[in-house]
Amino acid sequence: MWPLTAILMKRLNAAHHRWQRNIFGISRKNRTSNEEVRVRTGQRSMDEILNEKRLRWIGHVIQMDHQCTAQQALHWEVPWFKRGHQQTNWRSTVNKDLLRTGITWEEAEVAAQNKSECRQRVAQCIHLAEG
Predict the structure, then answer these.
(1) Residue 17: Cβ-neighbour burial (10 angstroms; 0-12, 13-18, 19+)
(2) Rounded to whole angstroms, what are the CA distances from 74 to 18, 100, 107?
(3) Could you write out the three-class secondary structure of 64-128?
(4) Percentage of residues of the chain with pLDDT beyond 90
(5) Minimum mean pLDDT among 10-24, 49-63, 76-90, 108-122: which range?
(6) Residue 103 CB: number of other CB atoms within 10 A?
(7) C-alpha distance from residue 19 to each of 15, 27, 64, 105 (Å)
(8) Contacts for 113-122 with beta carbons within 8 Å, 24 or more apart?
């Protein structure tokens, strides 16, 4: 449940593209763009995949009993010792994912109570990200 920094996201995307190139035998010498590799392989970017996984996970966590550690972790406040801006936490990362797709945190909590609606909302978010 850790938030991804921009640097970690770049590294994950680079590794994902490298794996796709290796699997399909596409050399860097071919001058094939990462976008073209994704089209050839039919894969989404790592950012889109992780966005989907986070949204699915938050649906499961919201449905959990309030005694579960994962449910309690949603409301933990971590004291930051660094000066400057507040560090990104997992909940704020998920909140950004939700807002990017036009869903508020409260709507996500309501949708998570109904499993079929939750699946439909995640599918809607994936479709919006692909389009």
Answers:
(1) buried
(2) 34, 19, 16
(3) CCCCCHHHHHCCCCCCCCCCCCCCCCHHHHHHHHHHHCCCCHHHHHHHHCCHHHHHHHHHHHHHH
(4) 1
(5) 76-90
(6) 19
(7) 6, 11, 35, 34
(8) 113/62, 113/63, 115/63, 118/59, 118/63, 121/55, 121/59, 122/52, 122/55, 122/56, 122/59
Tell me which amino acid residue 28 is: R
Q: Please check the confidence at residue 35 and state whether its pLDDT lies above 60.
A: yes
Q: What's the pLDDT tens digit per position in 58-109?
A: 877 877 777 887 777 777 766 665 666 666 667 777 888 788 777 788 888 7
Place of tokens 């005694």: 67
Token look-up 């995949």 returns 49
Rounded CA gap, 4 and 115, in Å? 27
Burial class (CB in 10 A: 0-12, 13-18, 19+), 59: buried
